[in-house]
């Protein structure tokens, strides 16, 4: 069995209690594996993620979240397809980051054409080239701390955080082993991306 990476202190301090689970033997928080995840029953409206051995059950996203995901995915997909750059995927789907998160479900990911083999029928195997998380009131702490650490530790080259309340997009790029903030973009500002070079999108258009 692959060892689970130790959660950074930012992530460990946010360990939630176990969500309601059906009767049975379930591991303690911090000890969850992908095999344990596979034993969870399917339940309409429920979404599970395992990060650093901890089980999370994020709340259902709100309307503002879904509006931003739809707008962002529409614009990024058009850019990616026009340039034959790769594949853009939108939740729900699994990303497996061995030793860090199995699985995690970002709001959107981009995988370069040269790495097309990483996309399997039901999941992405290994770090995508770009990950997008759109904040919701019920998931902001998970997205901003735990998932941020997971993507950084797994080596995802670029990570976007969209904030519908602030109406901003933060773009982080991996420099060495840590993320550096490339920019925080608001209405009237063009989003800059190292992974999607040439992208021409006004940040404000994503929050119409």
Layout: helices, strands, pairs:
Elements: H1 9-12, H2 34-38, E1 49-51, E2 54-56, H3 63-82, E3 86-90, E4 94-97, E5 101-104, E6 108-112, E7 123-125, E8 130-134, H4 140-154, E9 158-163, E10 168-175, E11 178-185
Parallel strand pairs: 4-7, 8-9
Antiparallel strand pairs: 1-2, 3-6, 4-5, 6-8, 9-10, 10-11
Short description:
The protein has four helices and eleven strands, in the order H-H-E-E-H-E-E-E-E-E-E-H-E-E-E. By secondary structure, it is of the alpha+beta class.
Describe the structure.
By secondary structure, this protein is of the alpha+beta class. The protein has a domain at 63-207: tt1808, chain A (Alpha-Beta Complex), CATH 3.90.1570. It has helices at residues 9-12, 34-38, 63-82, 140-154, and strands spanning 49-51, 54-56, 86-90, 94-97, 101-104, 108-112, 123-125, 130-134, 158-163, 168-175, 178-185. A 6-stranded mixed sheet has the order 3-6-8-9-10-11, with helices on both faces. A 3-stranded mixed sheet has the order 5-4-7, with helices on one face. A two-stranded antiparallel ribbon has the order 1-2. The model has no long low-confidence stretch (mean pLDDT 91).
CATH superfamily of one domain: tt1808, chain A
Main CATH class of one domain: Alpha Beta
Q: What is the residue-averaged pLDDT?
A: 91
This entry's quaternary arrangement is single chain
Distance between the termini: 46 Å
Strand tally, please? 11
CATH architecture of one domain: Alpha-Beta Complex
Q: What is the CATH third-level topology name of one domain?
A: tt1808, chain A
Characterize the biggest β-sheet: 6 strands, mixed
Q: What helical percentage do the residues reach?
A: 10-25%
Principal-axes geometry comes out as: globular
Order of helices and strands: HHEEHEEEEEEHEEE
> Main sheet: which strands, in order across?
3-6-8-9-10-11
- How many helices does DSSP assign? 4
Detail the poorly predicted runs. Answer: none
CA gyration radius, whole angstroms? 17 Å
């Amino acid at each position: 069995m692959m060892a689970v990476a130790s959660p950074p202190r930012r992530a460990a301090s946010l360990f939630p209690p176990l969500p309601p689970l059906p009767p049975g033997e379930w591991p303690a928080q911090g000890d969850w594996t992908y095999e344990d995840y596979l034993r969870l029953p399917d339940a309409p409206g429920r979404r599970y993620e395992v990060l650093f051995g901890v089980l999370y059950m994020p709340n259902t996203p709100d309307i503002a979240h879904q509006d931003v995901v739809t707008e962002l995915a529409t614009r990024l997909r058009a850019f990616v397809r026009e340039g034959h750059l790769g594949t853009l995927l939108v939740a729900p789907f699994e990303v497996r980051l061995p030793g860090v998160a199995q699985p995690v479900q970002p709001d959107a990911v981009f995988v370069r054409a040269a790495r097309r083999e990483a996309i399997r029928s039901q999941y992405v195997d290994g770090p995508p080239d770009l990950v997008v998380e759109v904040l919701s009131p019920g998931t902001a702490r998970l997205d901003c701390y735990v998932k941020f650490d997971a993507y950084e530790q797994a080596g995802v080259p670029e990570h976007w955080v969209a904030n519908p309340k602030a109406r901003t997009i933060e773009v982080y790029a991996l420099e060495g082993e840590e993320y550096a903030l490339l920019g925080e973009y608001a209405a009237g500002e063009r989003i800059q991306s190292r992974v999607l070079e040439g992208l021409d999108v006004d940040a404000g258009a994503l929050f119409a």
